Amino acid sequence: MPGVSRARTDPRTWPWWGQVLALYTVTRLFTAAVFVWVARLQLPNLWTPGHPSYWKFVGLMFDGSWYRQIAEHGYPATLPHGADGLVQQNAWAFFPLYPALVRAVMAVTRLPWEVAAPVVATLLGAGAVLLVHRCVVLGAPRAVAAWPALPLATVALVCVFPTSPVLQAGYTESLALLLVAGSLYLLMRRRYGAAALVVVALGFARAVALPMAVVVAVHALVRWRDARRGSEAFPLRDVLRVAVLGAVAVVSGFAWPLICGWMTGVPNGYLLTQESWRGVRTTTPFYGWTYVPQFWFGPWAALVVVAGFGLTIALLVAPAAWRLGNELHTWAAAYIGYIVAVIEPGSSLARFLLLAFPMGAVTAGLVTRPERARRIAFWAVLALMVGLQVLWIRTMWLFNPHGDWPP
């Protein structure tokens, strides 16, 4: 009996899902403790009173209040304009699926937004990390064969990523990560119909469906190549299904902007709304990189940008990246390229990178031998990320009423 009891308490003997959920729970409790500590330092602001509760601090701050407005009041029928005639910040910048889910939970449980929103996000995050684990198992067989602990190590790095606290806040990262991982998993399983449904949902959760179309295209090309070589069949039935899935990803990428234009009567209303958040009112691809780095780094801007791009490219072409399957590798490259093109590279960039979860597998797999070196490297990265996570909550989530950047 002592041996049985010891086995039950030894996480190494637990099923994979038990290990993943235990890791996720421990990291969420740690992050919650940091949130509580930082909340004690918070002064009164636009969203909360001074020293807010945990629920208000993670449920109402920053974009959380925009999602609350959508859940409780919907979207404006017309775009608001300022005295200068330009479109002002408004709810159309935020996608509807997450606030709709929270509103349904509020209706059933009678919980207020500031409680329901973090609870829903945390539960969605649990599902997301389970799928992240499965994606690495299925999508990186060579890497997992070399290091069986890689899927759990990837989950660990996702859970302690500096911006992972948003997985339990009133933000859409949990839902988006769930849908991205779900889309990739179903694509790799070749369940194209189910993948199409998930990609449609992704199109109403975050503006990240377009890079998924690139993943589908690469998946199709690899299957076509293998069919030409005679290593496997690519029947017409699957060709048509993959083509439909790719078309669905493209349409999903444009669906919400089109709906915004139709509902408000302004065809480019979504882009005008996005421009209202930018320092320079334009959504021209890559243009933000011409002025934002100068603001942050002054004369060092060019060097920092080149170094950042160089490091990212080095990771994407490292042997650890090529040991991933085509779908995971392509998603990481396509998604990072996409956000570099379309966003203004401000303080939210680190949060957006959370969805590039295959990079966690790349990072964990950079050092392969000897075993002791791999363990040291992994735990060093883990400790660094935990420290940066605390720093991120303390410096980014803590709002300075006299001027601040959003997380």
Describe this structure in words.
The chain is globular and about 65 Å long. The longest helix is centred in the middle third of the chain and has 29 residues, at 236-264. The model has no long low-confidence stretch (mean pLDDT 94). It contains 20 helices and no strands. Helix 2 (16-39) runs antiparallel to helix 6 (113-139), helix 3 (54-60) crosses helix 6 and helix 6 runs antiparallel to helix 8 (150-160). It is an all-alpha fold and 407 residues long. Helix content is 67%, strand content 0%.
In short:
The chain is mostly helical. The protein has helices spanning 2-9, 16-39, 54-60, 63-73, 97-109, 113-139, 141-146, 150-160, 173-188, 192-203, 209-229, 236-264, 269-275, 292-297, 301-317, 319-322, 326-342, 349-352, 358-364, 371-397. α2 runs parallel beside α8.
Radius of gyration: 22 Å
Strand coverage percent = under 5%
Major beta sheet summary: none
* Structural class by sheet pairing and helices: mainly alpha
Q: What string gives the helices and strands in order?
A: HHHHHHHHHHHHHHHHHHHH
Total strands: the figure is: 0
